[in-house]
Amino acid sequence: MKIVIDDKIPYIQEKIALLADEVVFLPGAGIEADDVKDADALVVRTRTRCDEKLLAGSKVQFVATATIGFDHIDTHYMKEAGIEWTNCPGCNASSVAQYLECTLLLLQQKKGLNLKGTTIGIVGCGHVGTKVKAVAEQLGMRVLVCDPPLGKDDFVSLDVIEREADVITFHVPLTREGQYATYHMADEHFFQRLARKPYIINTSRGEVVDNKALLVALQQQLVSDAVLDVWENEPHLNEKLLNRVFIGTPHIAGYSADGKVNADNMVIDALCRHFHLEHPGKILPPSLPSDFVDTGNALDFYNPLTDSEKLKADASQFENIRNHYPVRREQR
């Protein structure tokens, strides 16, 4: 059996080598049809577009993406071609919640936002949104949740969030069609309807927020500031917008070692199920440095401003920062 895998998926090398006769590690953005033509399985991240161009005529029967999102997978083609696939729902939800907690603490520390009693609007309440809701409640915030597809009685419509929220954070998948399409959900009309000049946070997918419209909204002071971890046209982001936002990071909100290991284990589990293989055992995250002292402050574990400063210093390093990301553990 042969597996082709993105070479930037960490911690998985030893265990996955026990599953196959041949494992080929390649840069995700550079995986091409010739690389996978004789492979049985493909393990990717968001940078590999899995579609007919890549997979037609190959032996690939199973694709796993070590990510929550799967908009890089052509699900219609996969069904037509009889290729099974899986993503890793919820794998890095705690990591993104950590990013949100630290971001909110920085808004309080650096921008003077008093979190207690401040209203946060959470758009999307799946694995990530649910954990963000718990974080916001622990911080003493008033929480409004909008997720029409879930349709819960205690949720609100988007227009309520537009009227009442002081912070709006997006945690939705990217969808371009249907009643609940999320592409450019936050467009120029959305920003014009905002009543309280809220802080905007996006850690979902870049195209959920119209980046040009957000830049105009910042310039016109329709919003107080913004925190972006995801961007339209990654890795070629809008540098004017990058330099204008409070925090701008290179799609790493979910990049804790804990989240990555969760994804690794979900991928291994899925490969074993599909190919009826003996399980090689669980992968564990690396330990914190021996001299690390836990003071109880979430910012000791992670400070998003560090990643933001790196990206703002040289936006061309977007992929390099992601691909050589240091060990980051979640507060336990």
Task: Walk me through what this model shows.
The relative contact order is 0.13. The mean pLDDT is 96. The chain has helices spanning 13-17, 33-36, 52-55, 75-81, 93-111, 127-138, 158-164, 188-193, 211-219, 239-244, 257-275, 298-301, 304-313, 318-323, and strands at residues 2-6, 22-26, 41-44, 62-65, 84-86, 119-123, 142-146, 167-170, 199-202, 225-228, 247-248. The chain folds into 2 domains: 2-87 and 257-275, 3-Layer(aba) Sandwich (Rossmann fold); 93-248, NAD(P)-binding Rossmann-like Domain (Rossmann fold). It is an alpha/beta fold. Helix content is 36%, strand content 14%.
Question: What brief labels describe this structure?
Answer:
332 residues; five-stranded parallel beta sheet; alpha/beta; Rossmann fold; single chain; six-stranded parallel beta sheet; globular; 2 domains
Q: Can you list the strand order of the major beta sheet?
A: 7-6-8-9-10-11
Strand content: 5-15%
Number of strands: 11
Sheet with most strands: 6 strands, parallel
Structural class: alpha/beta
CATH fold label of the largest domain: Rossmann fold
